[in-house]
Amino acid sequence: MIAFTAALAAGSLTLTACGSRDDSGGSSSDKTTVVIGVDAPLTGDLSALGLGIKNSADLAAKTANKEEFVKGVEFKVEPLDDQAQPSVGQQNAQKFISDKTVLGVVGPLNSSVSQQMQKPFNDAGLTQVSPANTGTELTQGDGWKTGNSVRQFKTFFRTATTDEIQGAFAAEYLYSKAGIKKVYLIDDQKTYGAGLAASFKTNFTKLGGSIVGSDHVNPDDRDFNAVVAKIKKTGPEALYYGGEYPAAAPLSQQLKDSGLAIPLMGGDGIYSGEYPTLNKKAEGDLATSVGKPVEQLPSAKEFIANYKAAGYKDAYEAYGGLTYDATWSIIEAVKLAVEGNDGKVPADGRKAVLDAMSKIKFDGVTGPISFDEFGDTTNTTMTAYKIKNNKWTPEYSAAPKIS
User: Fold this and answer.
1) Neighbour tally for 119: CB within 10 Å
2) Which SS3 state, helix, strand or coil, does residue 38 take?
3) Is 301 helix (H, G, I), strand (E, B) or coil?
4) Contact 262/237 with Cβ under 8 angstroms?
5) Which among 111, 190, 205, 231 is least buried, having the fewest CB atoms inside 10 angstroms?
6) 133 phi/psi in degrees, rounded to 5
7) Are 191 and 142 in contact (CB under 8 A)?
8) For residues 115 and 89, is the Cβ–Cβ distance under 8 A?
9) What pLDDT, on the 0 to 100 scale, is given for residue 351?
10) Contact indicator for 172, 202 with CB cutoff of 8 Å
11) CA 274, CA 289: separation in Å to the nearest integer?
């Protein structure tokens, strides 16, 4: 363990440390510690995704330390569990804000949690980069629906693309590629699920598809027999679900148990290895997720190998590559801040990191990484997956164009 004292000096944040090694992959002697916060659900139903986020951020920090990517800086990851609860996420945001060594935060997983974190981070000038938030309004406000997009918070960025794009991609895939014209629509009433379902509906009907019925469910429910009875009466060819895998899996199984052999399709919230383990009749179900599968990307080979070598017991899951890139974007921003301040972390490190974020451009695990005027990723590639032999198999990738 290192012992250190941090103090603000004119023009830099200084640190004294004993010359030992810590578990982050590099020597900590005479280095300034920069903390990157990580917020995700580390316990509960969505913990599979959250633990993949935590581990991937940890790997990025360890890699930067091992390579001495930023001279004189030792990166440390500080993970907090938001339990997928907005109120807990808000509390975590305040904890990160109060720790002045935190110069950036990666996360959260849930758009509804992010809604409670964005303003506090913005007021504190603390950079936030989510690898998973897809709610379009988080960056562009509610006006995006009428073509009046306005950036909401200067501190918020993301490596995941928006539900506006994801909904359009899902609609195009289901209508044009899968040949499905009649869909029943359900969402879980949360920010992510409702927004994704709305985007899908707009784009599916624009293509000529028909929404034969719609309903809402409680994301904590696991008995969906009542809503299944409603779905059966409308004769759909598919069910589109805006929500996450803990509810989607039993909904799909109960639908098929009822005798209605149609696929359930959802967004990246159901694209988890846990989905087929929770659903004995998942075969043929569909999901969209941001980017191309990392297993198919030459740019991800090193990430996959290093993740395996690091011995994490949890899979990197759907957001591993996007999390590594989100974390690395903060690391790149710290590097620019240090290089612009005579090789030292500036006294106002948060402002320097935030100022650097607009200049970030690098080749990441998931492809070229940069951010547009809203803080959104410029990489809008999506992939459609199908459950085959009890696992997600990529079917089709494209960067949809929004009209």
Assistant:
1) 15
2) strand
3) helix
4) yes
5) 205
6) -65, 125
7) no
8) no
9) 98
10) no
11) 15
